[in-house]
Specification:
By secondary structure, the protein is an alpha+beta fold. It has one domain: 2-Layer Sandwich (Alpha-Beta Plaits), CATH 3.30.70.100. It is 35% helix and 36% strand. A 4-stranded antiparallel beta sheet has the order 2-3-1-4. Strand 2 and strand 3 form a beta hairpin. Helix 1 packs antiparallel against helix 3. The chain starts with a strand and ends with a strand. 19% of the residues are buried.
Length: 97
Amino acid sequence: MIVLIAQHYAQEGKDDEVAELLRRMAEYCNSDAEPGCLLYIVNRSTENPRHFLIYEQYADEDALAAHAETPMFKETLLGKEIPLLENRERSFWRVVE
């Protein structure tokens, strides 16, 4: 299993739009549309509403790669959400079993 932790920092005044796009992404990823995506949780900071933390779990690296090739990812995240960000940080992890 592979875990991706992403932190997104919305541009000033764009935080609600980013939240909605991430909500749509989570809904899609947690459905049957992406069987290799085991969990996709979007969190919003209680201290800074422009700061989002996304916790994702995938069955394996192939599932993560497949996620990045979906039309939903390309259109919603790459096409709409990422242009609204000041910064984006990502780190990859493995579950200790």
